[in-house]
Amino acid sequence: MSKSRRRESADSESKELPIYRHRSKLVDAVRENSFLLVTGETGSGKTTQLPQYLHHAGFCKNGAIAITQPRRVAAITVAQRVAQEMHCTLGKEVGYQVRFDDYTSQDTVVKYMTDGCLLREVLADSSLSQYSIVVLDEVHERSLNTDILLGLLKKKILSNPEKGRSFPLKVVVMSATLESDKLSAFLGNCPVFSIPGRTYPVDCTFGFAVGPKDVDSTGYVKEVVKMAFDVHTSERAGDILVFLTGQLEIERACDLLFEKAETIDYRYDVQDQTVDGLLILPLYGSMPTDQQKQIFQSPPPGIRKCVVATNIAATSLTINGIKYIIDSGFVKQLNHNSRVGMDILEVVPISKSEAQQRAGRAGRTSAGKCFRIYNEAFWEKSMPEYTVPEIQRTSLTSVILTLKCLGVHDVIRFPYLDRPEERFILEALKQLYQFDAIDRRGNVTPLGQLMVEFPLQPGLTRALLNAASLGCEDLMLPVAAMLSVENIFIRPGKPEKQKEADEQHRALAAKSGSLNDFATLLSVFQSCKSSDRPSSWCKENWIHWRALKSAFSVETQLREILLRLKQKRDFPVETFHGNRSELLRRCLCTGYFTNVARRSIGKVFCTMDGNGSMVHIHPSSSLFDQEGELNWIIFHDVLVTSRVYVRTVCPIRYDWVKDLLPKLHEVNVYELSSVAREEVTEDEMKKWEAKEAAKRQADPAEDITKKLEKRNNEATISDARARYLERKQQRKQNKAP
DNA sequence: CGCTGGGGG
């Protein structure tokens, strides 16, 4: 196609979009209001068109237009598309900015970016003086960063819109139609502009196999397979998309589907996974990217494609030609668990709105059908109306530090669209205090100011800064990078391959020369980096090359930030005498003393936080089954399956954390909440300090051990164990016939 | 002796 023809088609295409006839009214509405809410379903064209209208109307004279997206790929692809429509080179008038990838220049006036990037920019310039308009897109997804930006912009515009600026900032909030009243009310009853979408009807039917009683079982995998096969053998042409929760489940479902398909005479030999006109394709995030791309190819004529996916297919990837949805009704979700004081991944029923979202994936190009394997009672009793927004179910430590650094002292009364539970906020404050990021009055410390600069969880940042002050950041930078990317160890679904992978991983641990999973990460990082052919090194060792590559990028970024901070401020440098292994572990202690555990009986360890949970070392750890002197450990994260497991573990000496442990108990919730609300008096503060001093007298380990005797800690284990046994039973029943 | 979704900086 010639260039002019392409231009023509892009132009006429955009004129056909539902948003086009609202063009002038939209521009007027933005001109007249500080806040505007634009709602519209997929296909309305709001993401690509609105910024162009505003650009043509001259809004970029004073500054650029920022449009935020919750995901990197979205920011990139939309920017590419808009650059094409505006006939400019990407990075000139139209550009994008995501972590590790900045396609913007002095000329950029329409800038697509991730919400996280804009939040970093707010930290550098809270008045956002380079922008005339901020457009928050996909607000209904309720990503943590978007929610925070929403509150910050509301606060700023309602209180002092022109502070630090030569003209007032405008904010456009874009969202699906759902909950538009609530959003408008939140933004001071701002006007709502709704744009019709362009989707086709999807006919939904309920199944009968899964009911409210099945919330804790995995029996749905079998049901999903059955239903997918029914659709394949009875419905007209059109591809199938199946929603399940995780990799192993998906691999199992694909195996079952393949077996079923083999029982039919009529067969095709297209690829080894293809029989009877059914092309079965798994899809999940940790899959190699080229394998992921395979799902976009249209199947050979006469063959039906069946994609078995995680929630990645709900928003991140859009597959064309999907006509049938099979919905398991479950999702894997990261929830904050106060009992362990950490975020834990668990399988839960989806919300009704999420079910509608899944169904909608069948109606993008033509009318479709959605088959839900659960019954109406499950819909009524087990599924909430809406998904609880991320801000109400994950750890807030980073977020609260960011707010504090932005001068939001009263983090409880901050304008949240949905307020997190107060105890979650207090927990975050407590952690920040423990890491010395805020003081007893809730003010950010100089250390906290340094910590906020790093794109890491606060504990890791704390350890990294400690390493820097001891002059051993070269040990900690790779470890921090490795722990902030997805799991780098590949563990396949097939048992034979598992054995092979496990052996390789054990060899890697042995190579690091110490019983320390953090040191193994460091060793893997260094070995791969110094290898001539890093990608084949990864393959041989069952390591995710993609994950390791991103760890390399993260490490470089962290190194640069550290260097910048060192030039800007005085860094206290202490000297340390001892060996490397001890040095690394001591640094880790400053960030992980909240995750200390002591051997209780046999293989059971007991955490030293107020909860005193009983935990086991995960079998993937090099410390698994190690007896002997191993009495004290720190760990990176917790996994609740058949037991409460800790993963990424290293042995420590009690001496190293002795002085830090009292911090786990000295924080009083009442005072902290007063601090958060700016209600604390000098008198109260003095009493508090006295109380803390008294607590510090006692030996923390003995103190906790005593407390534990009074508690029935078996509950922690037996809960998890009971659920596991139930699931196991369920699996047996499913296999029996 | 085991089983981690999807985002983001």
From TrEMBL:
<protein>
    <recommendedName>
        <fullName>RNA helicase</fullName>
        <ecNumber>3.6.4.13</ecNumber>
    </recommendedName>
</protein>
<keyword id="KW-0378">Hydrolase</keyword>
<dbReference type="InterPro" id="IPR011545">
    <property type="entry name" value="DEAD/DEAH_box_helicase_dom"/>
</dbReference>
<dbReference type="GO" id="GO:0003723">
    <property type="term" value="F:RNA binding"/>
</dbReference>
<dbReference type="Pfam" id="PF04408">
    <property type="entry name" value="WHD_HA2"/>
</dbReference>
<dbReference type="GO" id="GO:0005524">
    <property type="term" value="F:ATP binding"/>
</dbReference>
<dbReference type="GO" id="GO:0034458">
    <property type="term" value="F:3'-5' RNA helicase activity"/>
</dbReference>
<dbReference type="Pfam" id="PF07717">
    <property type="entry name" value="OB_NTP_bind"/>
</dbReference>
<keyword id="KW-0547">Nucleotide-binding</keyword>
<dbReference type="InterPro" id="IPR027417">
    <property type="entry name" value="P-loop_NTPase"/>
</dbReference>
<dbReference type="GO" id="GO:0006397">
    <property type="term" value="P:mRNA processing"/>
</dbReference>
<dbReference type="InterPro" id="IPR014001">
    <property type="entry name" value="Helicase_ATP-bd"/>
</dbReference>
<feature type="domain" description="Helicase C-terminal">
    <location>
        <begin position="224"/>
        <end position="407"/>
    </location>
</feature>
<keyword id="KW-0507">mRNA processing</keyword>
<dbReference type="InterPro" id="IPR001650">
    <property type="entry name" value="Helicase_C-like"/>
</dbReference>
<feature type="region of interest" description="Disordered">
    <location>
        <begin position="691"/>
        <end position="715"/>
    </location>
</feature>
<dbReference type="InterPro" id="IPR007502">
    <property type="entry name" value="Helicase-assoc_dom"/>
</dbReference>
<keyword id="KW-0347">Helicase</keyword>
<dbReference type="GO" id="GO:0016787">
    <property type="term" value="F:hydrolase activity"/>
</dbReference>
<dbReference type="InterPro" id="IPR002464">
    <property type="entry name" value="DNA/RNA_helicase_DEAH_CS"/>
</dbReference>
<feature type="domain" description="Helicase ATP-binding">
    <location>
        <begin position="27"/>
        <end position="196"/>
    </location>
</feature>
<dbReference type="Pfam" id="PF00270">
    <property type="entry name" value="DEAD"/>
</dbReference>
<dbReference type="Pfam" id="PF00271">
    <property type="entry name" value="Helicase_C"/>
</dbReference>
<feature type="compositionally biased region" description="Basic and acidic residues">
    <location>
        <begin position="691"/>
        <end position="713"/>
    </location>
</feature>
<dbReference type="InterPro" id="IPR011709">
    <property type="entry name" value="DEAD-box_helicase_OB_fold"/>
</dbReference>
<dbReference type="InterPro" id="IPR048333">
    <property type="entry name" value="HA2_WH"/>
</dbReference>
<dbReference type="Pfam" id="PF21010">
    <property type="entry name" value="HA2_C"/>
</dbReference>
<comment type="similarity">
    <text>Belongs to the DEAD box helicase family. DEAH subfamily.</text>
</comment>
<keyword id="KW-0067">ATP-binding</keyword>
